[in-house]
Amino acid sequence: MRSNCRAGTVRPERDSIGAQYPVEVDETLVGERTKGEARGVHHKAIVVGAVEVRPRSLDADGKKRKKALYAGSLRLCLAPNCGAKTLTGFVQENVAEGAVVRTDGWDGYDGLAKLGYTHEPMVLDGDGEKTDAHLPMIHIAFSNLKTGLLGTHHGVRQQQKWLRKSEQRYKWKLRASSRADAGLGIEAAARAKGLGFVALTDERYHLVCLKSALDTPPVQALRAAL
Known about the structure:
The model is unreliable at 1-12 and 164-179 (pLDDT under 50). By secondary structure, the chain is an alpha/beta fold. It contains 8 helices and 5 strands, in the order H-E-E-E-H-E-E-H-H-H-H-H-H. The protein has a 5-stranded mixed sheet, sandwiched between helices.
């Protein structure tokens, strides 16, 4: 499990999350519905996630903001199953020991307290209000992940291929830490900064400029970079 979570797109020396803030942990299925196969059969990928829950600072008038919390650092990992060994292993590798960890009532998380975490489970039973109150940020993260995958990768197999390729665990909000393990961009920009690059898709661009400007140094430099 742990070796499967390591990926070339993240910093090997990255820090654990949750040292200062509570962490929400949950799992989800990613992929489209399978058609033409037996009921209950799917080829979806299991993704486990952990996200920090951080309080917002007061506004300029010293009053609490309407949304008092926001999502901090996020870790995501493709998982082979939802068993206790997989889930607790994911938490141990990504969340600082002693952190407050909030989960649903799935017994796969039952061993977290013995591992030194302050475990706060809650049986949700599909109750939307309970879920929004207990695990709001991780579900927003999962929703953003699924939206991004559907917008770029169409079809279950392509989505799973991308997930396995990147095994993503990254800083979700740059404003939370002022740095990122991974981000979206073009290869030329990554190479210019000496960063690794994992291609998600190929795109074609049309550059329009005055013909008289083609030989100017700025345009020449732009064309060379592209």
